[in-house]
Amino acid sequence: MTFPSRSLAVVIPTLNAAAVLAGALESLARGRIADIVVADGGSTDGTQALAEAGGARVVETSTGRGSQLRAGVAATTATQLLVLHADSRLAPSWPEVLRDDGRAGWFRLRLDDTTPAARRVEWLANWRARRFGLPYGDQGLVLPRALYDAIGGYRDMPLMEDVDLVRRIGRHRLVELDAEVVTSARRYRQGGYWRRPLRNLACLSLFLAGMAPERILKLYE
Question: Between vectors from CA 166 to CA 62 and to CA 98, what angle results, nearest 5°?
């Protein structure tokens, strides 16, 4: 059963995202959304003005995706939340696949690159989300506000805030949504289609082993 789209708020964390944010905002146009909140961590490239021109409210926060998302969610009272990265675009069918069964949902990842290497990364990301209940933030996340509040919401973390949240949601409360989210492959093209996934896996392993996110950030960067 789908939920009333007027109860939905979209939260987008940004930091100097002017080059990509318009695409994310345009992809939301098919849904009847109550609120779009851009949680900006101090952009200097016109991101805030672009967000407001696109119909979003801007919340200024400290830099760090966890604290940005926490502030963005706190700024809205909607009963359903959709968290989307600024360099991601939802498929046109996204409003039709949302659920109202108390669970959280993630979208299948698609990169904006036609190479076989991109297909490999997509397959691995979607397999990880299905097999282990660990969708990353670039796959989007939809969840009831009641569930978000019950598990304590996003924590003030410089990275791994997405993994931390879905682990507390739990696999039994996560479902794959039947639509894609198209995310920029820029970081893979720059960092390498082998090196970047291996680095991400190393960061995930360290986090699951208990290393502080602040220490992992040094490896990630």
Answer: 100
**What contacts 70, CB < 8 A, 6 or more positions away?**
153, 154, 155, 156
CB atoms within 10 A of CB 221: 7
- Beta-carbon neighbour count of residue 138 at 10 Å? 18
pLDDT tens, residue by residue, 136-193 = 999 999 999 999 999 999 999 999 999 999 999 999 999 999 999 999 999 999 999 9
The answer to whether the beta carbons of residues 12 and 33 sit under 8 Å apart is no
> What is the rounded distance in angstroms from the CA atom of residue 154 to the CA atom of residue 164?
8
Q: What tens digit of pLDDT does each residue of 76-102 get?
A: 999 999 999 999 999 999 999 998 899
CA distances from 74 to 137, 144, 153 (A): 18, 14, 10
